[in-house]
Amino acid sequence: MQKKEQWATKFGFILSSAGAAIGLGAIWKFPYMTGMNGGGAFFLLFILFTILIGLPILIAEFIIGRGSQKEAVGAYRALAPGSHWSFVGKWGVVGAFILMSFYSVVGGWVLIYSILSIIGSVIRDQADYAALFMTVTESPWITITGFALFMLINIIVISFGIKDGIEKSSKILMPLLFIFFIVLVIRALTFEGAAEGLRFFLQPDFSQLNAEAVLYALGQSFFSLAVGISVMVTYSSYLDKKASLPSAAVSVSIMNIFVSLLAGLAIFPIVFSFGLKPTEGPGLLFMVLPEAFAQMPFGELFLSLFFLLFLFAVLTSSFSMLEIITATFTEGKKQRSRKHVAWIAGFLVFLAGIPAALSSSSLADFHIFKYTVFDASDFLVSNIMLPVGCFMIALFIIFKLDRTFMETEFLAGNRLSPAVFQMWYQLMRWLVPVTIIIVLLSSTGIIGNNN
Q1: Are 83 and 380 spatial neighbours (Cβ–Cβ below 8 Å)?
Q2: What is the rounded distance in angstroms from the CA atom of residue 270 to the CA atom of residue 191?
Q3: Domain count for the chain
Q4: Which of 19-28, 319-328, 413-422 has the highest mean pLDDT?
Q5: Which domain holds residue 202?
Q6: CB 123 within 8 A of CB 290
Q7: What's the CATH number where 383 sits?
Q8: pTM
Q9: Tens digits of residue pLDDT in 189-222
Q10: Helix (H, G, I), strand (E, B) or coil at 359
């Protein structure tokens, strides 16, 4: 059997895992979800869910992946042979497939904006940035072309594997993203009216919350950490036994919260300074940032640099989705080439994503219940598949996985006390599943009042 590929360094694994988490979730989706769900109260719930629910599940996925040394489906088969628990991994692969099908549509938008900003067609040629966003998203050919190019980049990188593809790109791009975001925050805070944006983002107003908003906050914490679809099971399967899983998980979670904080500190001061509405929705980022950069010296240059780094952050997340699909159908199968499977998987994702890509144009009037195909895919993954996936992982930890095995993996590579493992285990046993059940039932109106 071919030797399993591994991350070159623990730092590379952490950055790659952070890259899987930090992308559209933190930079694109978090600001507009926060804007539509009450600002500071949503942000506080997001932090609490990330620390108390998302982080324990992230550690659980790391334990399952590193402990089994298998990809998403194979991990559950190896740890629970002869059972039906591999369904958890299959659920994750399907979730990653659906997620990537609409995620890559937005990735295509970012790619198009990157190109337009480089050639100077955003700030220089535009005064109405909302109109530009509508042009990009409502033109079938522009959207499909961006989507196709974005998928092509993913396929090429995943074809090269872990060390030469994902890890090398993450080591360069993630630090650059952090640095540039800090520069953007500093500039945003100098705008007149920035204080109002800060109050909206950092001052909780719990009167704006309802059960649906709480569900969105929980889903956002899962979406931004990439947990619930066993992406992190696959990533951690490439990690050696010397690395500390809890410290790696904490590092990824802190970086994710930090980037979400930076996104809010950059976006909301600009939104209020220019009299825009924080409830603009998915187009918020694409309409707000050009306004800000247009007021800066060398604005077009900085805008193009930001969109390029944003593109790279989006790519590092999408790499993880295509990786889980590719690894599932190649690991342990000598007759299947990674490159061959990556191309097939990428093409199938592209075909599946076409309806989502056309949701603002040709299929704008087609709705699944009250949602367009794009919004329905987003709701399905973020608010159903991710929470349910996390719930099933918690059940696997509680009822199937050997406790001694988990403690060994948890404590390997660190000096943590067994009491820390006990605290994590109790969170997974009680708080995580109970919270997910309550939030899901509340959001559907089965319990409580969803007004």
Answers
A1: no
A2: 7
A3: 1
A4: 413-422
A5: 10-443
A6: yes
A7: 1.10.4160
A8: 0.90
A9: 988 889 999 999 999 888 888 888 888 899 889 9
A10: coil
